[in-house]
């Protein structure tokens, strides 16, 4: 190495000393870490395949947590206390879950918090979705979150959700994932008949009201019935699930891409699948807190929240008080004096990673990023100092001191990271839950992997970025 350095010019050596170049995280990976990348990637693919909805993600996460020794808050309420090292979880409305590990220090000194979201862009059935047209039966949908509508036509679709029937019985429905299941789809025009469609803007070629899903074409076996195909679908639903048409009004049925997440590329270095925004961060944050064995100094927390894709609203989104209430319950069981003041001090002294994805540079679409400030696939976890749009509106904008602390923490642990913005100024930008938690006064930083084809039915992520996020989150929770 010294001989090579002697051959370099003073200017070259100075560039290496003073400059910064974000390198591919695959470089200099040890054999041990290579094995870990594969193990985590395989497990994540299973998680992503099984967790197509926020309810499924909560169920999966709780199953994994219980295997790691976590118990529901109710168990500690019965015992009347929480001690250092206790592992707690609280499920809220079956769509949001919080995991906590009690620390040695007083909770007034703050927590280490990682927050991700487990909702993803999708199609929801309308309250009265079933209709018949030209001897075919369809479901009407209303899209959820930011989608490109043309992405959702002519692909296999699955249906998951919960139905509350008239008598109060609740049933869960999952159709389209098993090999023997039927799937659903939305049709599109063939090229020969799409001359008029081709003249429209991409945003107008497929409309929101045009996202109607074919669910059947065979009529009920009785002559001269009006809407016989619709009746046959209703009969199928009643026979299999006991559902009547009015039960759609008290149902939550989500339509998502059917099929498993997959390895992508000859080298299998990428993962492709639906919902990686933001389940890749949810998985790595969850895994980071589950893999911790010894009791921590400060209390650790992982939040997997709902409704981020539509503004974190509703009683399962981060704008609600579910997290505040959870911490209040924790403080109550810790028997802290002056609990109201303790909670305020806890929030003020806490540090948080807003674990969310960002858009990586796509060589097929140039001009979307300032490449000197852009995130790249395969270069590690992305730290985003700010998000928002049009002058950082709606952004958290992390302080330099917290950025510096995280930089030292990650580099000491050997975590490969990069800086990045979500697109060019006045072109890109986006929101996360960062600014919501920052309202409590805690330090918050956005960080997560870069994706390609973000918000599409088949998003791409790098396995090495997945691993670096896990490693980074675990380091933060140390």
Major beta sheet summary: 9 strands, mixed
The tally of beta strands, per DSSP, is 20
Main-sheet strand order equals 1-2-3-13-4-14-18-16-17
Give the % helix. 25-40%
The Rg value, from CA coordinates, equals: 25 Å
Structure characterization notes:
The protein has 2 domains: 21-120 and 274-476, Aminopeptidase (3-Layer(aba) Sandwich), CATH 3.40.630; 122-257, Aminopeptidase i, Domain 2 (Roll), CATH 2.30.250. The model has no long low-confidence stretch (mean pLDDT 95). It is α/β, with parallel strands linked by helices. The strands form 3 sheets. Strands 1-2-3-13-4-14-18-16-17 form a 9-stranded mixed sheet, sandwiched between helices. A 6-stranded antiparallel sheet has the order 8-7-10-5-6-9. Strands 11-12-20-19-15 form a 5-stranded mixed sheet. The protein is globular. The protein is built from 14 helices and 20 strands. It starts with a helix and ends with a helix.
Short key terms for the protein model shown above:
Aminopeptidase i, Domain 2, 23% strand, 20 strands, 2 domains, 14 helices, alpha/beta, Aminopeptidase, globular, six-stranded antiparallel beta sheet, 478 residues, nine-stranded mixed beta sheet
């Amino acid at each position: 190495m010294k001989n090579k350095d002697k051959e370099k010019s003073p200017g070259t050596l100075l560039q290496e000393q003073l400059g910064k170049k974000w390198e591919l995280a695959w470089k200099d990976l040890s054999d041990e870490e290579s094995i870990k990348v594969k193990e985590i990637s395989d497990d994540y693919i299973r998680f992503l395949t099984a967790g197509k909805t926020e309810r499924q993600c909560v169920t999966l996460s709780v199953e994994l947590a219980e295997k790691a020794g976590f118990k529901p808050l109710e168990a500690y309420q019965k015992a009347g206390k929480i001690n250092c090292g206790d592992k707690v979880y609280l499920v809220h409305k079956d769509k949001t879950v919080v995991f906590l590990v009690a620390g040695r220090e007083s909770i007034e000194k703050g927590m280490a918090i990682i927050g991700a979201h487990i909702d993803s862009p999708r199609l929801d059935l309308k309250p009265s979705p079933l209709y018949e047209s030209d001897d075919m039966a369809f479901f009407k949908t209303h899209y959820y979150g930011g989608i490109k509508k043309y992405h959702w036509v002519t692909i296999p679709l699955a249906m998951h959700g919960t139905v509350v029937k008239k008598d109060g019985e609740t049933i869960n429905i999952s159709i389209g994932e098993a090999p023997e299941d039927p799937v659903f789809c939305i049709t599109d025009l063939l090229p020969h008949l799409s001359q008029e469609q081709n003249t429209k803007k991409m945003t107008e070629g497929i409309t929101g009201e045009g996202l109607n899903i074919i669910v059947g074409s065979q009529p009920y076996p009785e002559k001269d019935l009006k809407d016989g195909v619709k009746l046959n679908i209703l009969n199928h639903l009643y026979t299999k699930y006991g559902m009547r048409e009015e039960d759609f009004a008290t149902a939550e049925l989500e339509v998502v891409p059917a099929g498993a997440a997959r390895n992508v590329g000859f080298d299998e270095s990428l993962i492709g699948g639906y919902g990686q925004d933001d389940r890749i961060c949810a998985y790595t944050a969850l895994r980071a807190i589950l893999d911790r064995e010894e009791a921590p100094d400060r209390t650790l927390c992982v939040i997997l929240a709902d409704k981020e894709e539509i503004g974190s609203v509703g009683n399962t989104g981060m704008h609600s008080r579910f997290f505040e209430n959870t911490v209040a319950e924790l403080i109550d069981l810790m028997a802290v004096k002056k609990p109201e003041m303790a909670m305020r001090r806890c929030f003020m002294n806490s540090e948080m990673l807003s674990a969310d994805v960002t858009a990586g540079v796509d060589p097929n679409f140039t001009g979307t990023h300032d490449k000197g400030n852009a995130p790249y696939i395969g270069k590690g976890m992305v730290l985003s100092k700010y998000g928002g749009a049009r002058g950082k509106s709606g952004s958290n904008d992390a302080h330099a001191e917290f950025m510096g602390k995280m930089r030292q923490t990650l580099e000491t642990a050997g975590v490969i990271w990069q800086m990045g913005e979500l697109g060019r100024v006045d072109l890109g930008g986006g929101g996360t839950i960062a600014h919501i938690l920052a309202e409590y006064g805690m330090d918050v930083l956005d960080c997560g992997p870069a994706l390609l084809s973000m918000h599409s039915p088949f998003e791409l992520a790098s396995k090495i970025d997945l691993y670096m996020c896990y490693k980074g989150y675990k380091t933060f929770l140390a």
